[in-house]
Automatic annotation (TrEMBL):
PROSITE patterns per UniProt: ALDEHYDE_DEHYDR_GLU
Segments of this protein annotated with the region Disordered: 1-34
Descriptive protein name: Aldehyde dehydrogenase
Lineage of origin: Bacteria, Bacillati, Actinomycetota, Actinomycetes, Propionibacteriales
Entry annotation: catalytic residues: 247
Positions of the Aldehyde dehydrogenase domain: 14-467
Biased composition (Low complexity): 1-22
CDD domains in the record: ALDH_DDALDH
Organism: Nocardioides plantarum
Length: 519
């Protein structure tokens, strides 16, 4: 860290003069210098955000949508600029950065245009017992949402919370990763240019700044990162009963059935495992291949992988490992797999360099090895032979994680997908669910809980407001001390008439089992 007197181009004032440097993972050069916002700075940012939330939430859905779509236009016109900031801070190729930006733009557009339909007040049935009531429900903004973002997808991932929280009527305080603070500042700055008010603000710093956000009075925290850090975020937020949405790690698997398109499956697995240098929460880390096509699949993916190389050249399809300490994790997983009888068909023991990791394909790896059980977060993948799809599903589900998954099958894709314990599954594609704005994104188990994207993502940053309004006086005074024994007898008769007989399923016309029997 350095000490200097320079000011920050940000929406948050700074009481401390402490700063930190953002470094290029390609060559170690300083990309930018940013303030370390203190707990006092963060509290002030959240307090200011509450003031902005009052203005923002008072706008109509159409008015908010207009503001957000204006911001969308600014981002779109400056997409190349945003991609360059991402490239400098993460090292990812420009093409990957552009793809990330386009996906974020598409989600911003969807959230802005669909918030009204998903969240506005609507009538719901009141039931025969409460027929005198008019019942409605709507989803109201929480107030201020704190977003703690990751470094691997510093635009797409946090925008899955930011865009949906803003569209729902909340103000947002964004704490980007210390590896990508410039991206966070870019987003906040362009929002302020488009809207004219800091409804979206940014605080930068290290882990202490993120911890301070958990204690600063936000109405919800959206976190993306490791499972271990997610647990610490939950513990901090629990002190204030601050709700959280957690998108944590994954150990995503691919199942390849005997009738799969082998060339397409190999291409998808290789991209899913190695794109962004393997630093993808929903990236491919395990593959289970039916024995009938195992040899053909392995031969195809090895042929394709041998053409990939990670280096510092401008046209390299793979960038560096952004977080230096992850190199040790990747190395330990490869070494453990090889020491326990696994074989590297591509890459292997010498794949991990000082900044770059070469694609590595491992076979014959024990199921209890690090490379199969723990998140590697590098351009590596294990491939295992299975006798049946049932075995593939069982081994896929034998993990504490449950984020994404993939199935390649011409005839049984949907059937297999439904049996996988994961929040999301792609059939005959890879990570395609992330690009569909109307689909919720999130996991189960150690992969976290809560959802971003889609209608669920909008509702995630709201609370349900239910209203029952009396339209006329009730026939029976059920909620009154004027209720008599006669009223209670009438109530029993009514309930017996309504619910005492076997219930018929809608459209099917069949009695529900176990009901309708005489006592």
């Amino acid at each position: 860290m350095t000490m200097q007197d320079s000011t920050q181009d940000s929406t948050v004032d700074q009481t401390s003069q402490q700063t930190f440097d953002s470094l290029s993972p390609i060559n170690g050069d300083v990309v930018g210098t940013h303030p370390v916002h203190s707990a006092e700075d963060v509290s002030a940012a959240v307090l200011r955000a509450h003031e902005e939330a009052a203005w923002w939430s008072a706008l109509s859905f159409d008015e908010r949508a207009e503001q957000l779509l204006t911001w969308k236009g600014v981002i779109t016109r400056r997409m190349a600029q945003l991609a360059e900031v991402m490239h400098q801070e993460t090292g990812k190729p420009h093409g990957d950065a552009l793809l990330e930006a386009t996906l974020a733009i598409d989600h911003l557009d969807w959230a802005a245009k669909n918030a009204d339909k998903v969240l506005k007040r609507r009538k719901v049935p009141s039931g025969l017992l409460m027929a005198n009531q008019a019942a409605t429900v709507e989803y109201k903004p929480l107030g201020v949402v704190g977003v703690i973002g990751p470094w691997n997808y510093p635009v797409f991932t946090p925008m899955g919370s930011i865009a949906y929280a803003l569209a729902a009527g909340n103000a947002v305080v964004f704490k980007p990763s210390e590896y990508t603070p410039g991206v966070g500042e870019w987003l906040a700055r362009t929002f302020h240019e488009a809207v004219g008010r800091p409804v979206l603000s940014v605080v930068t710093g290290l882990g202490e700044t993120g911890a301070a956000l958990c204690h600063a009075g936000a109405d919800k925290i959206a976190f993306t990162g490791s499972t271990a850090t997610g647990k610490r975020v939950m513990a901090a937020c629990a002190e204030h009963l601050t709700p959280v949405v957690i998108e944590a790690g994954g150990k995503d698997a691919v199942i390849i059935d005997h009738d799969a398109d082998i060339e397409a499956a190999a291409d998808a697995v290789l991209w899913g495992a190695c794109a962004n240098a393997g630093q993808t929460c929903t990236g491919v880390e395990r593959v289970y291949v039916h024995e009938k096509v195992y040899d053909a699949f392995v031969a195809e993916i090895v042929k394709q992988a041998e053409t990939l190389r990670a280096d510092d050249s401008a046209d390299s399809p793979l960038g560096p490992i952004t977080m230096p300490k992850q190199l040790d994790v990747i190395r330990s997983h490869i070494d453990d797999a090889l020491a326990r009888g696994g074989r590297a068909l591509v890459g292997g023991a010498g794949a991990v360099g000082d900044r770059f990791v070469q694609p590595t394909i491992l076979v014959d790896v024990p199921e209890d090895s690090l490379a199969v059980c723990e998140e590697t977060f590098g351009p590596t993948v294990t491939i295992a032979r299975v006798g049946t799809v049932e075995e593939a599903v069982r081994r896929t589900n034998a993990t504490a994680y449950g984020l994404g998954s993939t199935v390649f099958s011409k005839a049984r894709g949907m059937e297999i997908a439904e049996r996988i314990r994961s929040g999301m599954t792609a059939v005959n594609g890879v990570i395609t669910f992330a690009g569909v704005p109307s689909l919720p994104f999130g996991g189960v188990g150690d992969s976290g809980f809560g959802r971003i994207h889609g209608p669920d993502g909008l509702k995630e940053f709201t609370y349900a407001k239910s209203i029952a309004r009396q339209r006329f006086k009730p026939v029976m005074p059920l909620t009154s001390f004027k209720r008599t024994a006669k009223h209670e007898q009438q109530l029993v008769q009514l309930m017996t008439m309504l619910h005492g007989r076997g219930t018929t399923l809608p459209k099917l016309g069949k009695p529900v089992k176990g009901r309708g029997k005489k006592a």
